[in-house]
Amino acid sequence: MPAAALLATFGLNAMPAVRAAESPTIAIADVTALESGGIILMPVTLTNSSGASASVTYTVTAGTATAGADFTAGAGTVQWQAGESGTKYILVQLLADSTAEPEEVLYVSLADATNATISRSRAALNITDSSSTTVGALAAGSVSEGAGTATVSVTWTGYSTATVTATYTTADGSALAGSDYTATSGTLTWSGGETGTKTFAVPIIDDTDDEPDQQFTVSLSSVVSSVVTRSTAAMTIVDNDVTPTLAVAAASVLEGAGNATISVIMTGTSTATVTVVATATSGTALAGSDFTATSSTLTWSAGQSGAKIFTVPILSDLISEAAETFSIVLSAASNATAGSAGTVTVTDAPLLSISATSIAENYNTGYAEMSVTLTGNSTQTVSVAYATSDGTATVVQDYRRRTGTLTWGVGESGAKTFNILVVDDTVREDNETVYVTFSNVLNAVMVTDSVTLTIVDNDGQSASPGVAVADAVIVTETSGTTVVTEGGATDVYYLQLAQQPTSSVSIAIGTSAQLSVSPTQVWFNSVNFSTPVSITVTAVDDAVGEGLHTARITHTITSADTRYNNAGVRAFTISINDNDAGISIVQSGGSTAVTEGASTGDTYAVSLVAAPTQTVQLAVNVGSQLTASPASLTFTSSNYATPQIVTLTAVDDALVEGTHTAAVTHTVTSSDSSFNGLVLPTLDVVITDNDSRVVIAQSGSDTRVKEGLPAGDSYTVRLTTAPTSTVVINIATLSSDISVSPASLLFTAANYASAQTVTVKAVSDMLVEGQELATITHSVASADSTYAGAAVNNVVVFVMDREGAAATKIDFDGDGLSDIGVYRPTTGQWIVQLSGSGNGDVVVWGLAGSTDVPVPGDYDGDGVTDRAVFRNAFGQWFIKQSSDGTGYVVTWGVAGGKDIPAPADFDGDGKTDLVVYRPSTGQWFVKPSTTGVAIVFGWGLAGGNDIPVPADFDGDGRADYGIYRPSTSQWYLRLSSSGATSVTLWGTAGSADIPLPRDYDGDAVADIAVFMPASAQWVVRRSSDMRADSITWGVAGGNDLPVPEDYDGDGKADLAVYQVNTARWFVRRSSDTRPDVLVWGIANSTDYPVQAPDFNADGTAYGRP
Domains, the chain, ranges and CATH? Predict the structure, then answer.
């Protein structure tokens, strides 16, 4: 391949084989130099040497530069040897001066070249004035942290016709951008001919940390038309924060408090960890006898401030003594300054005492009265919690469990009592014991933590088996109850023996001063033992205004027949109607509470217990904290028994008071001397303040928790103004029914307006308590006098009982009381009267004109009943959650089948489970809310007419499988706790008896019960003692629908009926047997009381058209 082709292949051009020589040339180049540059080299270049030596002459001549002043003039020759080429240099001497002047120029000219030609004959040497070429940054400076900005100067000196620019940037040293200063960058510019100083600002961040002085740097770069003599400068930020200080907040504590809690407060913050040693040292209070010597190191992390808690155990004694003090000394403080010692004052605590006691099983009242005595006065509220537990006695069988709290107000002393119900059984047994323990003692010293109650047996001298009540003496009350009236109606009951005695039997009848009985003793023998003997009960007509009250009747048996001698006979309670002057005051919900600024208040009802002979005027006295409407009430002989409602509202003042109380008193005047001047109890009204500097916001309108539900409830706390020092809010409760977290909140000037959350949860127990109230208190500690000791509102928590579920199911407002309500199929409306407010509540949830079955329950576990319907045509459940108002649909059942909805809590999680009973197969289909995994269980007669009656028959908090078989009146139960099964005959076989399992006796166990429409009788088998109760409540042979629920909140189901033809509700309250009558619904309509189940899923209550 030819060479040219090869070069072309690689993209090169082939060179001619023979090349003509180029002529040598000489050229000179321009140069720019500083005036102070000294000797400057001007380059002269020979290109393409001819092989012979070459030369050229030069001369240095003036342009704008002046010879002798700015440079030295001269001339000379530049030579290249034979064959040499390249660059040679002409040396030009520049002369520097101190005069600022513009750029100048001189010229170097070439001439007389030999063996070469001159291609560029003259070049310029541009001279830049040295005095105009320095850009310098300000030397290292300092700025106070609180100055806001640091100003940095850059100075340009000299003179330039060109624009000069310089870029500046900041960089971290020990000072950090974002926390100590703000990173800054930019460009400074000097126009042509401009000189002097330019500045830029760097923002400085003023923190509150005590820290060393810190530095950052400023750098210059990208300088144009100038040179830099100092490109970096340091800036020092001088700290302006004082060293944090530590102070002990004064504290006081009662001797019986257990511990003194002292706040050590740090004001200011540090970038380093702060520690201090706190030590409790003796004063008039001595270590070892009044408190435990304690020392502890308290630590604040970097950036932290506020209070740390130091706890000192306080030792109690039973010696009456004056107030004593000890000191909290701070030492060994690091990175902070320790203040002087703080003082803790120990005040002698009042004493709480109780004595052991005993009571006979058949004691007249049936209760053991326990008395706790407070000795000495307290400047604070005193309280103690009590609880019973088994000794040799067994709860339910021998006594009823009691828990509660006794409280003494400020300055109050003396005895407070509580009662323990003792069960009068018929078993011959040894005396038995119940333990009463005390805890949560506040502001007092409990002399003993426990006491023993002895129950003295009344059934014989030995623990040998006796005769059961049902087998010994039969007690029959007419109409199921015994009611008498002072100065009026008497009542009778009957006694007879169940078995023929071998010897005569004497029964002595005892009662209180409120009653008389006739006869007071009856005799039975082998002939008349089965003949009922009537006992007439008469009320003693006293002159005391008591209203409806009660008394007990007891029986003592004497006989030579050992089966009867000292055998137990049922004692029972007589209801007594009063005929004396008296005034009844009933607070709504059992207490009265109002809130400043609220649009609504609270109410109580007033009525007379007897008819007056003259008009009675009652004035309501409220003071300056409350208003009452009306302020006076008038009663006559015609309206005396009708309750009149008084509404109390809080006066919205501007005082910071926190939760406080006001007293309501009454003045009674009348020409009827029985009423004139009657002294009524004082009403204590709790007022929630709206002026507190500490704002508490409860989720919703209140705080509610329920036993067994892990979520609980919450409220938030914030401050209204920025404090000058850390504010610590301590949170506490005396209630054993709730837990609160956290125990304290910390606020500073930085976070004061941010709401912090407090979580409240219910503590589960096995007690039947119904709805209870628990109070959360707040105390404030701070070195800021505005907040120190500031009044803060309490939070009242509604605690809903899990154990009361057997008594109450229909509670739409979560107040622990069953609400009255109907479901209207024609419109799909739920029309409910809320027990908490008395207001009506109407919600559409169901298909108008359909056969939807109402199936209310607590499906979301928030302690409030949810509205729900079962639509048989599709086997669907439509549920509207009370917690958030959302609705959802679940298919659980056979569409168009005969499945009967039977919702209940089978897994014990506090939520109602979806359940259907399938009569065709006798199977239960359960969808547990905990797992959602279907449970199918056979319990019932396939193809029969069994009625599902799920309820908690064993008291374990879970629903048990239960069916009632109308054809045989048998109850078939399977207990969830043990799997045990039972069959009980209760009702009339083949009748229309309606099964109604509820907790009628308040022992947290569902009782077997039926309502007999033909006689309007309720027949209940009490689970607590297996006693049968038979009470008539309703219209025999009428169309009454039984609706038993806990309407009065005592943990027991009340007997109640809904009268279809009048839409009246008749409720017999278990707490006082008082009847309540209310019209709610449309008479003779299809309105369906939501308390009633549908036994055949046809959209009618109990399957009755």
Answer: 25-128 (2.60.40.2030), 135-238 (2.60.40.2030), 245-347 (2.60.40.2030), 351-456 (2.60.40.2030), 473-577 (2.60.40.10), 583-688 (2.60.40.2030), 694-800 (2.60.40.2030), 820-1103 (2.120.10.30)
